[in-house]
Design a protein that fits this description.
This protein has 177 residues and is an alpha+beta fold. It has helices at 2-19, 68-90, 142-155, 157-163; strands at residues 31-37, 40-45, 50-53, 94-105, 128-138.
């Protein structure tokens, strides 16, 4: 029943957006991060959910929680998996397996603005991102599943933000100590 409920909700939303396209643009829920001391940061959602991150031991943290970089990979994997679920529901594909694994390769020298052997400044972000999707479905060929994953990738907000980054508007508010 879940697949059908998702499909009904999506079709209802598509119908509303066709009649009122302006209803599609909205401010997303903010993420508010607060320093908790040492390398610990707690990030809160307006709905009450909290996520703790910590610096790894190599950077002076306690390494007791996930890192922000891991959250980036987790967000990519979860968003792509969610997009696959949505597209599968609309196409009436009954998934039997769905796992999305996101990995990256980074160079910690980028945190310090250091250069590589050729003298180029190393960026602080991931050098590479890689996603592996393991998927199975009843009555769907491998070709159809690959097409489903590709269509879902194009509709994934996090994948889109990473592939075609948007400018970050930065405001700084200072307070007296």
């Amino acid at each position: 029943m879940t697949r059908q409920r998702i499909a009904v909700a999506l079709r209802r939303l598509q119908s509303i957006l066709k009649r009122r396209p302006s209803a599609g643009a909205a401010l997303d829920a903010a993420a508010l991060s607060s320093w908790q001391g040492a390398g610990r940061i707690v990030t809160r959602h307006a709905g009450g959910t909290q996520m703790l991150t910590d610096l790894p031991r190599a950077l002076g943290g306690a390494g007791e929680a996930v890192t922000p970089g891991w959250l980036l990979r987790a967000g990519l994997a979860a968003c792509l998996a969610s997009s696959i679920v949505l597209v599968a529901a609309l196409e009436d594909i009954e998934l039997t397996l769905l796992e999305v694994e996101a990995t990256s390769r980074s160079d910690v020298r980028g945190l310090f603005g250091m250069c590589d052997a050729a003298g180029r400044v190393i960026g602080p972000g991931p050098l590479t991102l890689s996603v592996t999707v393991r998927i199975g479905a009843r009555h769907a060929s491998p070709a159809r599943l690959r097409a489903l994953v590709e269509q879902s990738r194009r509709c994934s907000p996090v994948a889109a933000a990473l592939a075609e980054p948007v400018a970050i508007e930065m405001r700084v508010e200072t307070r007296a100590a």
